[in-house]
Amino acid sequence: MTGPAALPAVPATRTARRAAGRGLRSDETGGRRESRASTVAKVVGSIALVAFAVFPAYWMLTTALDADAATRGSRLVPTSLTGENFARVFTDGDFGRFILNSVVVATATVAISAVVSLLAAVAVARFRFRFRTAILVMILIVQMVPLEALVIPLFLQARTLQMLNSLLGLVIVYLAFSLPFAIWTLRGFVAAVPQEIEEAAYMDGASWGRMFRSVLLPLVAPGLVATSIFAFITAWNEFIFALTFMQDSELYTVSVGLRTFFGQNTNDWGAIMAASSIITVPVVVFFVLIQRRMTSGLASGAVKG
Amino acid sequence: MSSSTADVAQHATPPTTPGPTPARRGALRRPPSWRRAQHRRPWLLLSPGLLLLAVLLGFPLVRVVQLSFQDYGLRELARGEDNYVGLENYREILTSSFLWQTVLPNTVGFAVVCVVLTMLVGTAVAVFLNTLPRTWRTLCLTAVMIAWAVPAVTGTYVYVWLFDPLNGLVSTVLTDVGLIDRGAVNWFAERFSFYAIATLNVVQHGFPFVAVTVLSGLMTVPRELYEAAQIDGASAWRRFRSLTVPILKPVFAVCTILSTIWDFKVFTQIYLMPGGNGGNPDVYNLGVWSYIESFAQGRYGMGSAIAVLLTVILLLITVVYMRTLFSEEEL
Question: What is the CATH number of domain A94-304?
Fold first, then answer.
């Protein structure tokens, strides 16, 4: 397994390379006693793990592309590919509108929550004040509250305030869910910026505001990106509130709009899976992206600080 | 999902600096007005966030408790008036056999099975990933991330499709093998098989969090410890039992408790399966029951009482969580 990476970068025929690889491996096995059985176990284990982890996503995407999606049965690979299911989602269904609604709601949530949570994170990470611990504990506890407990009072309240069937109402509610987590996470990023840099900025005559803008903000930017993406995903995926608040189908977000593709007796699985793929793919891309971003941002922040 | 990133951030936090040295503090002496501003600043910074949380989380929590003591239906909603009935809702819930024979076993049994399976699979995957060479590990981790990222809504629909009685993958395979007749078995109609599918769905979606968190814990354990144990002749299982488990105990504790909280309040995965949205009362859990009482039956007071019950259970688990967390790190 380590063969190709460890080889010198000289052009070689395949057989020569294989021979070199074998030589290298036999050297290593002498030292590390890594048996062939354990290598096989690792390969088999990796394949099994990848299959288990990715299978639902794979099945979703391939059904969406399958020309005979409804009668797919146990065909692992579609016989013929088509974009027809995706097209139907936009022509028969109103999915374009749902996507637009979701994008509007998620973007507004992200923008507001980024500003509010950064300010709060600076407060709890940088200042020692009364009730600080109490506030941190509250932020933690609040994340455990089940949405089912909040949806009833918030629905009744929104109804009174005529905020049902309004994207703004949804944005306000999503803010509440994304804030505690964003504050909690950003607090770690802010704390990772050494106090000395701030002191240095003061020494150079900067005011607190100037220091915040020119020193702290750029240094916590990676954290801000990461928490923003999480806020986006939260709003994009949310189901209960979107289901309860949006009674007008014009205002459905993607996760609720998906339900419109279910028929009375038969389900159009090709279209459902196509729409599901459209919802899922951006989230997966974002997710894989920030996981790398989070760690690299943290590392550089810690070293350079 | 959420807390893993919080953990990452925590681990990366360098040891807190002891603050400015006396000499520097002298150089930075500020006028009293500046110090006063410094005093007010944290509250100024916190105020928008606290305000939002108070209005959107604090107020509804108080209100849901109020509602739980009321017979609050469509009539009260239309008139906008309260109608207190004391503990009537709680009495009705706690004395109903539906709670004790259906809803609570569904909620607790499902959560316990999911937590145990999620922890086992997640830990096994983490230990396995830790033995892989770098390229392979990155590849496998990406796959694990994909499992994590698939939204609950779309993930659930995939499982509904996979287990579709007529044309689904499972039904087709079993028909081909000769075990069942196509369309003869509807797994969603039966309580046990319904929850088996939900368990598969939740575990498949939940194990990545455990795997990634435990893996990051494993990577902090010094390799020398394992080498020393190996020289002393400890087997792989022994090394896991006597080294990994005690060292990573706090990580396991946090993962277990968070998974417990999440699995207790699973809603979307149940609600979106056939029968889960009211068609089949046999499969209700606390969250679904509360939602349906409120929004399908229009009994908001009753639904609130069920929701309060769920919240109290989660709060108790949270207390345990906080205990574990606070002994581990200073806030």
Answer: 1.10.3720.10
